Amino acid sequence: MQTRRWKILPRQPQAEVFAQTLGVSPIVAQALLNRGIADAEVARQFMQPSLLMLHDPALLSNMGRAAGRVAQAIRAGEKIVVYGDYDVDGIAGTTILWHAIRMLGGNVDYYIPHRVDEGYGINSDAIEEICTGGAKVLISVDCGITALEPAQLARDRGVDLIITDHHEPRPDGKMPECFCIVHPRMAADNQKPYPNPHLCGAGVALKLAWASGQQFAGGNGKVQTELRQLLINSTSLAALATIADVVPLVGENRIITHFGLMGIKQCSLPGVQALLESAGLLNEKVDSYHVGFVLAPRLNACGRMGHAQEAVEMLTRATPERAREIAAGLEQQNRERQATEKQILAQALGQIAELKLDSEEHHAIVVGGEGWHAGVIGIVASRIVDRFHRPAIVISLEKGEGHGSGRSIAGFHLANALAGMGDLLDGSGGHEMAAGLHVKAGRFDEFRTRFLQYARKLIAPEMLVAELRIETEAELSQITKPLVDQFYRLGPFGQGNPKPILCCNDVELVQDPNVVGKSGDHLQLRIRQGPTAMKCIAFKFGRLAGQLRRGMRLDLAVEPTLNTYNGYTNVELDVKDLRVRM
């Protein structure tokens, strides 16, 4: 019955003393120690973050040069164009910079490429159009680090290109020749590395907006009061991007996300309010789950099924009425995306079964099909990874050429793997966990064979079994409402800061499980350990209904949650995995 490999982290001997110092449960102290937080003051800051803990944007290499040029362009009335990627990160970062530059009095416009027609990154045709339109400064958001030819074209046309990005540079080390590059993992020779290498594209854009405001105000470290409020508002956009782009929610990223989520319902941008309204979240406390599974898919849908320019319009120029109109359109596009995704996934699963790509022989999956919608294949790749826990590449084929998107597992660097197959590809880019690629005409089968061979060599069999990280073992009597309240203070949760999961050993199933859900996919369990009884919900475990019966003793991996019903709040356990004790 156990579906994953349980990794129960070792007990930390100092947890009891640490808990007394902090005034928290030893289980919470253990979770902090598991996150590498052993200093009491650091722990207090972790549980009570402050915007004052954000790093000075000047610590980013080339930030002074970039912000100085933006401020100069604003004063001179030069046209500035922000060129953003078509995903949530690019949309959010473009919005942040557009509002900041406009508030400072700048002449600013934006450009978002079409995912299918133009593809990822800066393209030369777009550069020509932007230059012809009179731009003097071009700022990329969430893209550009590999754009050698477009950067040269901008230089030849006399346009100062400022690249802000967080993706991997080219494997050959060549960098675009441009006005400057601002990247959280790249430092100039005379600068120390930025303290937060995990900033997403919108996070970098937020820093540039902040630094540009400082430069415009005279370079004394302060910004105008109106801009300061805009930057605080903009943490909501940066939070959406940070969660959606699945960058580690640690350090500065966690601070941005904490305040962004806390303030999103008060955000003054009509587009944000329209998005919340269309998603039915105006009366809900918005957390990481809502961003990842409700809001981000709507923003991404227009880039996948239509044009992401609409989402940027909703968040920038749109009136409240127009913003609601666009938000309703995003909702419709998201439904279309879901239907298309379901269809392609079914075809991909059939191909996997036919080719036995899920067998022990293969440590990765590569599938492709004629006419598969290029805007959806990345999500399909994610679904395949979730199901089979091995790297997956899904390729849309058209006249022999392939446009592909891949997702990976921990320990397998997808972008590096693709970089070594340049003879089969017209290009690739991305990072460790996600990448895009273009397969040369007629080379799909050869690419699949070589990629599977490469993955077989680098991926050990144990890496193909998903690991469940468990903070510590706990008795049911220890899992109380105060404990869960303290756990919530460790959020927001996501990549790099997972929700705490506990192991409850030797609990008794006191009644046969109840099958719940429209399709009977879930189980409701009632368990007891000594005098303590508790209710559990086991999502997606409905298949085990006939194998579990009253009186069985179980080990459970659970996420403690609070469930409020009819005004009463009780602790409930969300079962992540289980095993029957023999």
Question: What keyword list fits this structure?
Answer:
3 domains; inorganic pyrophosphatase (n-terminal core); five-stranded parallel beta sheet; 18 helices; Diaminopimelate Epimerase, Chain A, domain 1; 582 residues; five-stranded mixed beta sheet; alpha/beta; 19 strands; OB fold (Dihydrolipoamide Acetyltransferase, E2P)
Question: What would you note in describing this structure?
Answer:
With 582 residues, the chain is an alpha/beta fold. The chain has three domains: 5-48 and 467-580, OB fold (Dihydrolipoamide Acetyltransferase, E2P) (Beta Barrel); 52-268, inorganic pyrophosphatase (n-terminal core), CATH 3.90.1640; 356-464, Diaminopimelate Epimerase, Chain A, domain 1. It has 18 helices and 19 strands. It has helices at 15-22, 26-34, 40-47, 63-76, 88-103, 124-132, 148-156, 201-216, 225-244, 251-263, 270-278, 288-305, 309-315, 320-355, 377-388, 414-419, 444-458, 481-488, and strands spanning 5-8, 79-84, 107-111, 137-141, 160-164, 180-182, 365-370, 392-398, 401-407, 425-430, 434-439, 467-470, 472-473, 502-509, 514-516, 522-529, 532-538, 553-565, 568-580. The strands form four sheets. A five-stranded parallel sheet has the order 3-2-4-5-6, sandwiched between helices. A five-stranded mixed sheet has the order 7-8-9-11-10. Strands 14-16-17-19-18 form a five-stranded mixed β-barrel. Strand 2 (79-84), helix 5 and strand 3 form a beta-alpha-beta unit. Helix 4 packs across helix 8 (201-216) and helix 5 (88-103) packs parallel to helix 8 (201-216). The longest helix has 36 residues, at 320-355. The two termini are 12 Å apart. The model has no long low-confidence stretch (mean pLDDT 95).
